[in-house]
Amino acid sequence: MTAATRRLPMIEVLRGVLGDAGVIFDGASMARYLTDWSGDHKGRALAILRPASTAEVRDAVKICGQSGLTIVPQGGNTGLVAASMSTDADHTAVISLERMNRIRQLDAENFTIRVDAGCTLQQVKDACEVADLLFPLALGAQGSCQIGGNVATNAGGVNVLCYGMMRDIILGLEVVMPDGELWNGFSGLRKDNRGYDLKQLFIGSEGTLGIITGVELKLFPKPSKVETVYVGVASFEDAMRLFRDTRRACSDLLTAFEVIGEECVSLARLVHPELAVPIAAPVHVLMEASCSGAIDLRRLLENVLAEAMEDGLVTGAFLAESVAQARCFWAIREGLVEGQARRGYHVRTDLSVPLSGVPALIERARGIVASKYPGWTSIAYGHAGDGNVHFNVLPPQDMGEPAARAIGVSIETDLYGLVTTAGGSISAEHGIGRSRKDVFWSLLPPIHKRMLKAVKSAFDPDGLMNPGCLFPEEKELA
Amino acid sequence: MTAATRRLPMIEVLRGVLGDAGVIFDGASMARYLTDWSGDHKGRALAILRPASTAEVRDAVKICGQSGLTIVPQGGNTGLVAASMSTDADHTAVISLERMNRIRQLDAENFTIRVDAGCTLQQVKDACEVADLLFPLALGAQGSCQIGGNVATNAGGVNVLCYGMMRDIILGLEVVMPDGELWNGFSGLRKDNRGYDLKQLFIGSEGTLGIITGVELKLFPKPSKVETVYVGVASFEDAMRLFRDTRRACSDLLTAFEVIGEECVSLARLVHPELAVPIAAPVHVLMEASCSGAIDLRRLLENVLAEAMEDGLVTGAFLAESVAQARCFWAIREGLVEGQARRGYHVRTDLSVPLSGVPALIERARGIVASKYPGWTSIAYGHAGDGNVHFNVLPPQDMGEPAARAIGVSIETDLYGLVTTAGGSISAEHGIGRSRKDVFWSLLPPIHKRMLKAVKSAFDPDGLMNPGCLFPEEKELA
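ok -> structure tokens follow
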């Protein structure tokens, strides 16, 4: 009996519970769930399950458990570390949350919203906007990433500066545990000190502890004014000084502070050839400030910029005169990401260090690339106000992909070594997933390894949830 | 051989490691560590250990483990639920962090500070202020509570509205685990997605998973302007409407929004007989807004108040003209707490509900007291902007304490039942400790109990840390 024949009865059981639309097991239809955004990974699975309700998720998990199947939970499949990439065609089912996409309840008085985990981030943001409220998480992938995946990866993005990571804007979760039991961690409460805050464990757990089926989020008054500024500075040191001064002068109304090395501009031009880049300077800074009341935000920023010019900190500054101009400024930041994707394979990192360490990190990383990897191009940009730098490295244009990938591994190792020495993180926002688990575990002290394993064993003792993600496979576990 | 004789050799071992100042075991000197702030509890312990460094904490924990002693970690002993109250004179040592009170490192560029867990909250706040920075946690007990205890209890206070609970302003922890191993969870990073965020487990763990020895905190620019407003409104409904409108109009620069039922004013007068209370209204609201830049905060608030007066939402409003007047406004809020303590034993709660549920909670709680407990006085005040109400009940002045305590238990049960029905929490900030563990466990669904126990077992499999706190004693565990 082949694996394909063996699995047929199980598929029938799953179909009986989830309906025809709830079970996909032919190769062509499964492909979409087994190819990741970057194209770097191709996965395998026995079937894709698409439950339409929390009850169906519970049923699916129980059936998988009874059938000896492990489970890979999947949101919008936009992650960058292959955390939702199933690799086993015989014993693993992907559970996609995409059919669970209801806004359950928006409570404008409580500044909260409760949604299905399969809602896209954009859908949640839109629902809030209608009620004159803001859900602040903002990511490039927001049209397709799902809110449950944002929780499971503790998503970041451009507005962390003011509103925090996903962890900071979650009030409650609903989770189906590996045994199919439902944990209801909803409360709508801003303050609740009843014992361990269990929801924290699922935030950033990358599907290794349970399946998030519902999410309750903190909302904010929708800003009535947004001001966007594009400035040039002489160095990353000056960018960080500007951040410190501006943060204070704007009373934490700063919602974004992005740095862009000037080398990134040509990447943005790959996407928008006509792009008007208002300044020429070694480092560009894109700032955004927002408020919801009668604050004269524009004058506040004019003063900040005037002072920074006077101090010689800023070499050129443009305060957007219109929404259209603000969009042009953001097109530079967004375009460079797309432009770099067009260049094909490249080394992609999301390093973080203490704020004071940002300039040295970039300088040293550039030095390593320049001296050890001739022909490769360093690209530095990111959420400098959070100490988070995307330091990426593009291969020479004439290098074939296999050769580039081989060298890329070595570059990555050098960059991870550098950030670790600087007391920083190899993963500020993208996570560990499958791509980074080896380097992650190789850098951990023994007690931290024991603690991670203790948590995993406490919630998923049989290792049913997302095997191979975040943790080494059992046979690899020391 | 008596217990006292049996324990002598162990005391000598501990003295050898911690020095004479590090071990207290005579009854008179131990009393201070075994009496809680409220005077409600008297504890017992074999000894009080006072390690002066993280290394000494590790040694003490290891010796306790080898000697079969359990451990109660203790900070400033200002908690309200007996979480640091040892109750066993034969097998338990209290480990006080009071000698570990160094500011380790303030990094103004990174907006962070790293401190010993035994620093008082005030000491940390003062160290930040010198550097023109703010550590925002603000509690009545800040002169004596310790920062490690603030972490272990996830402390709240009056500034949660703007800055969050303790959980939200912690960047890293250093913890001695029950086996004496050291977990270094410091990083100084604002963004770090390397696997489970283990520090979250220790925040609010009430000493049941390990001993917090070091804390790394997020800092903020010190506000350069603070405006304080005292207003009268007709009802708690109107207070909550005012909150919604003001939050938006002030662009989340609101740092406090406290409600005070008019019945509380006479309690404040017990402490400050000369107190000038600027308004007469069923509900008083004390608001504070802060900013660090050139925002015209005063005009912002004047506009907010003018609009609220026009709408008939506010019946009287005073914007403090001076720091002295602002202090007078706060003296009402702080005095009522002290005044109520002077009345001796009373039912003390810290309930939370969704913001929209605050008025109904107070109205129903008052109804229960009025109808079932004649002669008792309801007191309602609290952090309404967080949905957190201190609904306390004072016994009739002529009732003896034993009788009052007996009835108090029944009132507490009624209030806990009420808040649970409303989907709220029996403990918004004070925690569970020993005082509330029975009611806490009686209200938990089975899966939540299993998850809490799984976490406890994962980190403290032998139950060495703070037995009797948060969890039922082993014999009671179902």
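Residues 401-421 of chain A form the longest helix (21 residues).
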